[in-house]
Amino acid sequence: MNPFAGILLIALGSIGAASFYVPFKKVKSWAWESYWLSQGVAAWLIAPILFAFIFVPKGELFPIINEAPASAKLMAMFFGALWGFGGLTFGLSIRYLGVALGQSIALGLCAAFGTLIPPIIAGESLFSSTAGILTIVGVSITVAGIAIIGYAGSLKSKEMTEEEKKAAVKEFALKKGIFIAIFAGIMSACFNFGFESAKPIENVALAHGTNPLFQKNPSLIFILLGGFVTNLIYCGYLNIKNKTYRDYFSVSGSVLLNNLFFTFLAGFLWFLQFHFYGMGSSKLPEGMAVFGWSILMALNIAISNIWGIFLNEWKGVKRKTIIVLIIGILILILSTFVVKLG
After folding, report:
1. What residues contact residue 27 under an 8 Å CB cut-off, 6+ apart?
2. CA gyration radius for the chain?
3. How many helices (H) and strands (E) does the chain have?
4. E strands within the chain?
């Protein structure tokens, strides 16, 4: 156990997750649904299989997959498919709000509901124990943080000219973006449920000699496969509806290679958060391990807002708006730890 190394590994994953949307700015002549599906091929199909092959003992991946309980694999895919709706709308929230605002709201809710929903489904009374009350307090703080960040977004909308908004976030739409981000945050919490359902797969992986650092890699194959199916159906529908299926073969060879490179880069950056999260959480002591998910979400929120500054998403707003934003971010980060404390 090495808490410092664990947090450092989770931080590396957060850098990838918070940065994954940046390469999309280099994509040319493709509609959103085209480049989102392309990064999904890298993030949800290629990366989990590739990393499992690399980090699971040689020749053991297929035996692990064969021996893992069918129920665990199906449930991991089921929660992955539900998470897919969150992942899909997560991309839309960043499209309409920008990297900083979109990720802050969606990830804050993801951290909160990832802890709140399981006891509700299990029929537990959250008001009957200190842990339950702390969970409710944490979620309430999350909502307060999101409300403050949303207020900062409304101030931004009033203070920036249309030209400044378009320069920072091409399709900026505050109300639509916040609604989508809330839905994304709730549904994205299903990823954590996928990890819980896939624990029997991890046990089989460990029995086959997999290093505990990489025990979650086989599970990710099934969780992300479920998410890919959801996104494939929706993006394929948009490709047909908007006739953007032509994107894949109507551009020049150089543009195609450019777009594949940057969308695949985005996909691999996104995947790194869960690869390093699995490594980092295995390094945390038992009493601290429960905070692993909160550490990941908190760091994602913080780093995404650093990117928001670099990308000039808040350029031209007043100091008061920045102060409101920072307060909201700090409250949101605090809430993730209060929720997990519960």
Report:
1. 35, 258, 259, 262, 263
2. 20
3. 17, 0
4. none
Rounded CA gap, 253 and 258, in Å? Answer: 9
Q: Which residue in this structure is represented by tokens 């038992």?
A: 286
**Burial of 320 from C-beta contacts in 10 A (0-12 / 13-18 / 19+):** exposed
> What tokens does 286 get?
């038992």
The per-residue pLDDT for range 130-172, each reduced to its tens digit, is 766 776 776 677 677 767 776 777 777 677 666 665 666 666 7
| pTM of the shown model | 0.74
Which parts of 176-277 are beta strand (E)? none
Say if residues 98 and 313 touch (Cβ distance below 8 Å). Answer: yes
Instruction: List the structure tokens of 304.
Output: 């995404």
DSSP 8-state symbol, 68: S
pLDDT in tens, 16-65: 887 888 898 899 999 989 999 999 999 999 999 999 999 999 889 999 99
Buried b (16+ CB within 10 A) or exposed e, 273-290: bbbbbbbbbbbbeeeebe
CA–CA gap between residue 180 and residue 253 (Å, rounded): 35
Alpha-carbon distance values, 46 to 85, 134, 274 (Å): 20, 40, 14
Query: Which residues, other chains included, contact 226 with Cβ-Cβ below 8 Å and sequence gap of 6+?
Result: 76, 77, 78, 79, 80, 81, 82, 83, 84, 194
The two tokens of residue 66 are 């064969």
CA angle, residues 257, 259, 264, in degrees to nearest 5: 95
**Cα gap 111→240, rounded to integer Å:** 35
Q: What is the DSSP string of 132-194?
A: HHHHHHHHHHHHHHHHHHHHHHHHHHHHS-HHHHHHHSTT--HHHHHHHHHHHHHHHTHHHHH
Percent of the chain with pLDDT over 90: 33
Give the three-state DSSP class for 57. Answer: coil
Which of these, 76, 298, 110, lies nearest to 186 by C-alpha position?
110
How is residue 9 written in tokens?
């590994």
Q: Is the CB of residue 274 less than 8 Å from the CB of residue 63?
A: no
